[in-house]
Structures are given as C-alpha cells and as structure tokens.
Amino acid sequence: MTTTQTAQHLQDTTTLHNEVRMPWFGLGVFKVEEGEELVQAVKAAIKNGYRSIDTAAIYGNETGVGQAIREAIAEGLVTREELFVTSKVWNADLGYESTIAAYETSLSKLGLEYLDLYLIHWPKAGKYKDAWRALETLYKEGRVKAIGVSNFQIHHLEDVMKDATVKPMINQVEFHPMLSQEPLRAFCATQNIQLEAWSPLMQGQLLDHPVLSEIAARHGKSIAQVILRWDLQHGVITIPKSIKEQRIIDNAALFDFALSAEDMARIDALNEDRRVGPDPDNFDF
C-alpha cells in the first residue's frame, strides 16, 4: 500500500487530528549520551533546518537536548514556537500521579515550559491506562500540545480508546523495510492516528541490502535516503538518529527525488516482521 505524502521540504508538517502541526521529519537521540557531542548534534540539526527533536526520559539526555535548544534559540537559529519537541514517560513512572510527576521532571531537565508531544513509551500491562488519563489531564490543561503512545499494538490502542476521552494523536513504533507494520498502519489510518517510525534504518542493518542498494544506485542516493523516503511516501513520520553533522544533512536530503510505485512495492516486499527492538507484547521492563 503506497500513501502519497505531502512533504516537499524538510520543514513541511502533517496535521494531527487535534489540528496541531508536526514535522514529517526530525532528529532522534536514542542512545546519545549527555555531553557536548549531543549538544552539538542537536544544534547542527536545528542549524540545518530540522524542527523536530525526539527524546525520552529513559534516554538520560533530556538535559543536553534542552541545553542545545536553549543555545539555538539564544543564537537566533530558531524560536521555541518553531520547534516540535517530544519526550516520553518510562515504564517505571506509569500511573496517574507518577506520570504527571514524570512530565514535570522532563520539563525541568529540558528547561522548557511545555512539550509539543508527550508519549507513553511502552504499553506496560496494567499501567498504561492510568498513565493515559494523566496525559489527558496534561493535554486538557494546555500543558502539552499533543499526546500519544509508542510501541502500541492494535489491541493496546483499542484498550486505551475504550475509556479515553482524548484519542492518541501519534503512535511511534519500530518501522523499517523488514518490519512494515501493514495491519497496524491500516488500523491507525482508520482511526486518524499518525504513525511515526523509530529505528527507521534498522540500526544500520539494512545499509548493504542488495535490493535497496540497486534502488539507491538508480536514484543516485544512499540506502539510508531511500529508506527514509519510503517512510515519507507511506505517510509515516520519521526521526533518524545521528550525531555527525554531515550525516544529519544527508539524512534530510529527501526532497529532490521520489520512489516509483515499483520501488515502493519492491521495498514493501522485504518485510519479514523482524524486529531489532523488543516485542511490545513481551516487554515488561
């Protein structure tokens, strides 16, 4: 199934079901440690036109991400209103009061007055519905612009929506050519829940794949660029991680070519339902 995506530029946005606009493309900082390298990577992304930054409490780097954002604003690279900042509540903090406290902690570490998007990181059994009520409270109080989930399967989404007063705006999941998530994508489309990809490059495991290599050579692009373009043409937001400025620039060079319907079908056919991350149904950390 090929979805026409509207992103023609790095700063183009999609409109979530609550009318909040979110960039199609952003920078992820999973496994990037606190320190100057992190600060410079986030600033490099902003300097080169990125407007979406995705972190999480468990990444342990919210302080550095916030420092980079504040420095970028102070240097006139961007305004806070132009940025879209995401963080996530970790499993240990799921629960109503504890999720609200976790949000306050993330804001404090980031040094921000609000987040653009706050997600439940994993659907920990027996915990995520109370956490969702907390996100609804934060959202209704205007303390966060949008709320969503991460790593939720169809049955988790159905369970949350059964009692929810606000439907998730985002579901951020592992998504790459070896895990194309077609049933979940179709379900989210029917519910107007925007899918977002983490680990879009399968942690580098696809960067010598022969089919992707052939398609990339034909377009004069890298395999990474082909995969990220495939994400966008499926209408999936994507947030590749990099700490090197040239890679950050290269990852975003996606708007001067398009994959054909045949290219998309060939990449779709690579699906093996293979994960590099945990299975959400069996992850109880």
Automatic annotation (TrEMBL):
Q: Which amino acid positions bind substrate, per UniProt?
A: 121
Tell me one GO molecular function of this protein.
methylglyoxal reductase (NADPH) activity
What's in the keyword line of the UniProt record?
NADP, Oxidoreductase
Return the InterPro entries for the record: AKR (IPR020471), AKR5G (IPR044500), Aldo/ket_reductase_CS (IPR018170), NAD(P)_OxRdtase_dom_sf (IPR036812), NADP_OxRdtase_dom (IPR023210)
Q: Which residues form the signal peptide?
A: none
Name residues in a coiled coil: none
What are the residue boundaries of the NADP-dependent oxidoreductase domain, all occurrences included?
Answer: 36-272
Catalytic-site annotation from UniProt: 59
Q: Report the EC code(s) recorded for this entry.
A: 1.1.1.283
Q: Kind of enzyme, top EC level?
A: oxidoreductase
Q: Where is this site: Lowers pKa of active site Tyr?
A: 88
- SUPFAM superfamilies per the UniProt record, alphabetical: NAD(P)-linked oxidoreductase
Family statement drawn from the similarity comment of this UniProt entry: Belongs to the aldo/keto reductase family.
Put simply, this protein is called Methylglyoxal reductase (NADPH-dependent)
